Amino acid sequence: MKRVLVSVIGITMCVLLLSSCKEKSETNCSDSVENDAQSTYILQTDESTEKEVNENLKKEAEERNRREIEEKESIISKNKIKILSLEQDQRSVEQERSKINTDINRCQANLSNAQRQLQNAQNQKVKVYREGVGWIYTSDQQAIASAQRLVRQYENQQYSLEAEQQQLYLKIQKIRTQISELRNENQQLEKEIVSLKNKYNF
Fold it and tell me: What confidence category does residue 202 fall into, taking pLDDT thresholds of 50, 70 and 90?
C-alpha cells in the first residue's frame, strides 16, 4: 500500500513538473515573438526616420541653392543697371572730350595766327625819327609786344585744354574698366547659375 502511494505521488509530481516546464516554454516563446516584433518595428522606424532626414536634407540643400541662384541673379540685375549708368556717363564724358578737341583745334589755329603776326611784327620795319639821329627804320616794339601777349595767351589756353583733355581720357578709361569688370562678373555668375541649375535640375 505504501509503495502504491509513493508511486502515485511521484507520478503526480512529474506531471506537475512537466506542466510547469510547458508553461515556461510557452511564455519564453511568446516573449521571443514579442521581442522580434519590437525589433522589426524599431528597424522599420529607423529606416523611415533616416529616409525622412535625407529628404529634409535634400530639400534644405535645394532651398539653399535656390537662394544662391536668386542672389546671383539679383547681383546680375544690379550690375546691368550699373553698366547702363556707366555707359551714360561714358557718353557724356566723350561728348565733353569731343568739345574739348574742337576747342583745342580752334586754339591751335589762333595760336598759329598769333605766331605769324609776331613773326610779321618782328620782320616789319617802320620809319621813326630819333633826335640826334634822324629818321631810321626799326621794328615796331609795340606791335611785337602785342603779338607776344597773344601768342602766350593761346599757348596757355592750349596747355589748359590739353590737360583737361587728358583728364577726360583717363576718366573714360576708368569707366570702360568698370564696365568690363561688371560684364566679366556677370558672365561668371551666369556660368555658376547654369551649373547649379544643371546640378539640381531646376
Answer: low
Strand, helix or coil for residue 166: helix
Q: What is the pLDDT of residue 44?
A: 54
Say whether 65 sits in a helix, a strand or coil: helix
The cell numbers describing 59, all together, are 530639400
Find cell 621813326 and name the residue. Answer: 128
Q: What are phi and psi of 9, to 5 degrees?
A: -60, -40
Cα pseudo-dihedral 25, 27, 33, 35, rounded to 10 = -120
Question: Could you count the other beta carbons within 10 Å of the beta carbon of residue 153?
Answer: 14
**What are the two backbone dihedrals, phi and then psi, of residue 132, each rounded to the nearest 5 degrees?**
85, -10
The C-alpha atoms of residue 71 and residue 22 are separated, in whole angstroms, by 73
Residue with cell 595767351: 153
Instruction: Compute the CA torsion angle 180, 182, 185, 187 (nearest 10 deg).
Output: -70
Spatial distance between the Cα atoms of 196 and 70, rounded to a whole number of angstroms: 11
Is 90 exceeded by the pLDDT of residue 173?
yes
65-116 pLDDT, tens digit per residue, is 889 999 999 999 999 999 999 999 999 999 999 999 999 999 999 999 999 9
